[in-house]
Amino acid sequence: LLQDNVLNIINQIMDECIPHERANRDFCVKFPEEIRHDNLAGQLWFGAECLAAGSIIMNREIESMAMRPLAKDLTRSLEEVRNIIRDQALRDLNLYTEKMKDSLKHFDILFAEFELSYVSAMVPVKSPKEYYVQQEVIVLFCETVERALRLGYLTQDMIDDYEPALMFTIPRLAIVCGLVVYSEGPLNLDHKPEDMSELFRPFHTLLRKIRQVI
């Protein structure tokens, strides 16, 4: 809680002192919902201190070793920022010196870099390409349902009533449609397995056999 409070105060100072020079944090939209909470900053600070002291985070030795230099830079920068803010508070609360601004910019950049590295090591963070492929799968399922309704394979009442059988029917129809009707979409087997959605990637060989049969 103390760490969160300190970081909240520093963030408020940065919003006022360097509002147009904050580090880009667009990557945060990729984080899972359970990661994006009010205590994340404090956890990142604690993680940085542990890494800087030589600890291994959650048995991830390779990732921890890779992040350790950044963690050390971040903890040093944070200490410098705290000292400068403390010193400035004893002088003039309304004055932001160039030294203070430079320290805040440097800290903000390091914190953003560490946040992305740390969270990416702890949980899978999708790349823009992976998000695009995921969107293609969503479109495939939507077009499959529309086509099935049009051809009478399904009824709107089945969908409105959450017919349990749809849990099996729609994915199977989507696979057939993806292989035959929308063959240039996410189930394009001419692509490498690593270019496919992680949902279908493990079944690349099986999908080829299914396509041969149908």
UniProtKB/TrEMBL annotation:
InterPro entries: LST-2. Signal peptide: none annotated. GO terms for cellular component: early endosome membrane. It comes from the Eukaryota. This is LST2 protein. It comes from Pelecanoides urinatrix (Common diving petrel).
